[in-house]
Amino acid sequence: MHFQKTSLLFFLLLMLGGCIGSTKHTAMPGGCLKALQTGDRILVGVIPKLSANRSYQLYQQLEQEFRQKGLAMAYVVEQEFDLASKGIKPNAAPDSVTLSQMRKLGYTHYLGLAVGNVASAMMYERISAQEHREIQQGYGAAETDDSKATVHFKLYSTEERKAIYNLATTTKMSGVTLPGKEYEEGHRNSHTVNLSTASLATEKALKKGARELMEKCKAN
Length: 220
Fold this sequence. Notes:
alpha+beta, 6-stranded mixed sheet
């Protein structure tokens, strides 16, 4: 009885969450030699192909993660006047000259971001007992749509004037499947719900990627 109550509570919590997430990191081997130090100042670029508001929202979330680890961040849009004083455009490619100018303004690093591989799978699906039987017999197929997003991080050192670390973090959010009460020839119907969106997958990938980057690159 205790096991049944625990299982029921677990399924209810999953239903309320509406999805199960998984994250994969793809990065340069070896990290970036503990390049980040407490007190470092990091300039963050605008995220291409996103609206200005959405790019800024993601920057704010990122800034919270880095601030907790003692790293100061600045957003290029908010620093436009100071950057212009050194001839730096907000979306300029961070070549060696630009990185050198950023260092003169007190920035130890520049962080470029990009979001790709985005898909949204918010859905509800009911599969009957007969459909489950057909799937098991090879006559049908179950759809497995996920919400997903990949956030790319590219960290530059203004001292070395070059990129020192690349990281791609992909988060997938799958639906939760709960068994129903209908049976047919030993097979049971089910209900699948996925309350996730591409925006939610992006935010989770951003947060997990930021933590992974700091784990691989921060000295203390």
